[in-house]
Write a structure and sequence with these properties.
Layout lengths: L2 H31 L1 H15 L8 H11 L6 H27 L1 H8 L7 H18 L2 H10 L3 H25 L3 H26 L11 H35 L2 H37 L3 H37 L2 H33 L4 H54 L4 H13 L1 H11 L8 H21 L2 H22 L1
Helix pairs in contact: 1-2, 1-8, 1-11, 2-6, 2-10, 2-11, 3-4, 3-7, 3-11, 4-6, 5-6, 6-9, 7-9, 8-9, 10-11, 10-14, 11-12, 11-13, 12-13, 12-15, 12-16, 12-17, 13-14, 16-17
Length: about 500
């Protein structure tokens, strides 16, 4: 197996474990803490995402520069990492201080609290200030591991951290059902995780020093690409977090809890997407830097097709059988509010996956102005539309806005990237990589229509029908894959066995 295939497998194993733990933990957290306290945890995650505005495009720049660096011990990219480390810690410290000092204002003037007291909410927000302090700089070390294509190590660290946070957090809540105790545990795990990343980063990049350092030549070398990525990242925050931030201030906090539950369920779809894109970016950047356009195009199309094939399955399952899945996963009253949101968010996530490979290609080829321009235009439309849809449609309106913005991406990003980077139109991309798997969504629609109202979470027949449809999708969809992809998938078991035998020797 080549390195990119190994990295996708590593991402799949590590990411699947993280998704599974999250899916197990979420309904328990809601049941033990209540929808409003769970909404506060989701608000904190959204608040932390605002920091992307101040990441200056550094994580993606590090991945690209480290992947392109062929100097001994990565000497050319070490200064970039050290300078970036200094910037990140300054931003993390400032933002943590702002959260700590502004906790009272946030709880009284931003959030709409019903059952929890503003003072109690403010205390929880202050605890999370320290959580932010230790989690935000992790992006630097993640960039190092991704650029070096050491994704097995990165996924191992993530799996350990998520296991400790989720399973340990559930145990703590069962012993002492208190939001503060849970937040303290999250902060402690984030500190240990930070220490592990620092230690292993220094081993992975010999000679790396993580003390304060600021290099002007480094800034001059990467500023243009980094600036473009920063604007793209900032706009991405608007597209991915504005819904929850507006919900948190326009609607009661418990609605944010329902929306956040639906978001976390469909986030598994985007996590599947990330299994491929995080492995694809450094590989395509390396191909482009070496002028190997043929291999770049081959890898791009193969992994786009495989990614859409994989992601479409859970997307369709949630779109057509989301009510059953939610009912089995959580309580009935939660399903009432979350189900319509799940359907729409799953559709938006599928559209987002379709456009993700062209996005990665444009970044790897250095054409960052393409997503930059698309996002700048999109945000001018998205924010006012999102605001009015939430006012008139609540959390369902927010989900509709997510579908619309990803439809816009699909229509604009794919043709532009195909013409500029590969010098071809987008018809082949849609014909071979997208349409066959969208057509297979008809299997799920037919299954949903056939069983109709008789489909329920307590019926063995219902789950059997879902399993049969999923198997049919996997088998028929496999036949639409490129022959080389089919052979690679069939050879995975033997490749894993050979790798295991080599390690035993």
């Amino acid at each position: 197996m080549n390195r990119i295939t190994k990295n996708v497998i590593a991402n799949s194993l590590g990411g699947s474990w993280n998704i599974l733990l999250t899916l197990v933990a979420i309904p328990l957290q809601i049941r033990l803490l209540g929808a409003e306290a769970y909404g506060l945890i989701g608000f904190v995650a959204s608040l932390q995402s605002i920091l992307v505005v101040f990441d200056f495009g550094i994580p993606t720049t590090i991945i690209r520069e480290v992947a392109r660096d062929s100097s001994p011990n990565y000497g050319n990219s070490r200064d970039l990492v050290q300078t970036s480390h200094t910037i990140y810690w300054a931003v993390a410290g400032l933002f943590a201080l702002i959260i700590f000092v502004g906790a009272d204002w946030i709880s009284q003037h931003w959030l709409t609290v019903v059952t929890l007291s503003p003072a109690y909410v403010a205390g929880g927000i202050r605890i999370t200030a320290f959580y932010v302090l230790f989690t935000w700089p992790l992006n630097i070390y993640v960039g190092i591991f991704s650029g070096l294509q050491q994704l097995k190590l990165l996924n191992l660290l993530r799996a350990i951290s998520v296991t400790a946070t989720q399973l340990g957090g559930i145990i703590i809540l069962l012993l002492k059902n208190d939001l503060y105790v849970f937040l303290y545990w999250m902060t402690f795990v984030s500190f240990i995780n930070f220490v592990a990343h620092v230690y292993l980063s220094r081993r992975a990049m010999p000679g790396l020093k993580l003390g304060p350092r600021f290099s002007i030549p480094v800034i001059r070398h990467v500023w243009r690409f980094s600036f473009d990525m920063n604007v793209i990242s900032t706009l991405s925050v608007v597209f991915t977090q504005a819904d929850r931030l507006l919900i948190s201030t326009l609607l009661p906090l418990n609605f944010l809890g329902y929306y956040n539950l639906a978001f976390n369920l469909t986030r598994g779809i985007l996590a599947l997407q990330a299994f491929f894109t995080s492995a694809l970016l450094p590989a395509l950047a390396n191909n482009h830097s070496q002028g190997d356009e043929a291999l770049l195009k081959l890898r791009y199309n193969k992994f786009a097709q495989l990614m859409i094939y994989v992601v479409a399955l859970p997307s369709f399952a949630l779109m057509f059988f989301g009510h059953i899945i939610l009912t089995a996963w959580t309580s009935t009253d939660v399903v009432t509010y979350a189900y319509p949101v799940v359907v729409l968010l799953a559709l938006g996530a599928l559209l987002n996956t379709i456009v993700s490979a062209p996005y990665i290609l444009s970044i790897a080829a250095g054409h960052s102005y393409i997503p930059l321009t698309i996002n700048l235009v999109g945000v001018l439309i998205y924010v006012p539309v999102l605001y009015f849809l939430i006012i008139f449609g609540g959390i369902v309106g927010a989900a509709i806005a997510w579908v619309l913005i990803n439809l816009y991406y699909t229509i604009v990003q794919i043709p532009w990237t195909q013409r500029r980077t590969l010098h071809e139109n987008s018809s082949d991309y849609f014909a071979y990589n997208v349409l066959p798997f969208l057509a297979l969504g008809g299997l799920f629609w037919v299954g949903n229509r056939l069983v109709g109202a008789n489909l329920n979470s307590s019926s063995l027949q219902s789950w059997l029908i879902i399993m049969i449809i999923c198997v049919l999708y996997v088998v028929i969809g496999f036949l639409f894959l490129d022959k080389t992809i089919q052979r690679s998938i069939l050879n995975i078991p033997s490749g894993l066995r050979i790798a295991f035998l080599k390690r035993e020797r």
